[in-house]
Amino acid sequence: PMSDANLVRVLQAQAKGRVGLVDHADVQKGEGAIRSRFQALESAGFRFAVVDALSDADLLNIGAACAGLPLVTAGSGLALGLPQAFRRAGLLAESGAADALPPTGGLRAVISGSCSIATQGQVARMRETHPAFRVDPFELACGGDVVGAALDWAASRMDKGPVLVYATAAPEEVKAVQAQLGAAQAGSLIETALAEIARGLLELGVGQLIVAGGETSGAVVKALGITGLRIGPEIDPGVPWTVAISKSSNGRPVALALKSGNFGTRDFFIKAWRFLQPSD
Questions:
Q1: C-alpha to C-alpha distance for 136 and 157, rounded to whole angstroms
Q2: pTM of the model
Q3: Residue 122 within a domain
Q4: Do 144 and 67 belong to one domain?
Q5: Position 99 in a domain
Q6: Are residues 64 and 142 in the same domain?
Q7: Are residues 81 and 126 in the same domain?
Q8: Which residues pair with 243 in a beta bridge?
Q9: 131 shares a domain with 218
Q10: How many CB atoms sit inside 10 A of residue 14's CB?
Q11: Which neighbouring-strand residues pair with 107?
């Protein structure tokens, strides 16, 4: 969990080069001031810059200032500013169908490993109307075949609609598990199991899959052998549908929504499906 809110310090602990800051006072002054700050940091020997943002207007200014850089990594909000800057530079044509994805079919499922407040609400909301299977970390630690049980359970229910497989839990439950198993072991057990379940679900015919949790999403993408994603329509701010070709899908397109913990409204798991174009 995050223990320091200062991203300059957080990044500096991971980087060999010096990390500087473009603070909000400069960002408010616009594209030129941001570029000047970039140049000043570079001249002073900094290799990385963290940039403040408090509004969409800030993101537009930052996108314009970053458009000529060879590498930019950021939260999805920066995508508000970059496309306009690329269009002004003649690098990006106007298109009304940039987020159009190929039709996808197959069964539907949700896998949730995040324990964030937002995801807890999303899991609770889906459990009100859809079948749900809870992955028990203690059973995993005891060697139980939780993956097999989850897949057998899902196989008998997915033809009636989306199902939910989750390890999401309240903070006190998470602390109890970590106290007994250790935080690293508990996390590893759950992520490995959820990734194996995801692979099994695709083999059972799932073609549209939502994954909640950053670490869970990474484990699932790796387990499915995904090397690229085509970005599609946005379900909620910062969370789009994507389509990937997975080694586990026998070459057919698979729709994936990879959601970080605190993203999305409470009904995210329920409403997401309507943003997809069904296959014929």
A1: 20
A2: 0.73
A3: yes
A4: no
A5: no
A6: no
A7: no
A8: 230, 255
A9: yes
A10: 8
A11: 206
**Tens-digit pLDDT profile for the chain (280 aa)?**
678 889 999 999 999 999 999 999 999 999 999 999 999 999 999 999 999 999 989 999 999 998 888 888 887 788 788 888 888 888 777 766 667 787 788 999 999 999 999 999 999 999 999 999 999 988 988 999 999 999 999 999 999 999 999 999 888 888 888 888 888 888 889 999 999 999 999 999 999 999 999 999 999 999 998 888 888 989 998 899 999 875 655 667 899 999 988 899 999 999 999 988 766 5
What DSSP string runs through the chain? ------HHHHHHTT-SSEEEEE-HHHHTT-HHHHHHHHHHHHHTTEEEEEE---SHHHHHHHHHHHTT-S-----GGGGGTHHHHHHHTTSS---S-TT----B-SEEEEEE---SHHHHHHHHHHHTTS-EEE--HHHHHTT--HHHHHHHHHHTTGGGS-EEEE----HHHHHHHHHHH-HHHHHHHHHHHHHHHHHHHHHTTEEEEEEESHHHHHHHHHHTT----EEEEEEETTEEEEEEE-GGGTT-EEEEEEE-TT-S-TTHHHHGGGGSPBP-
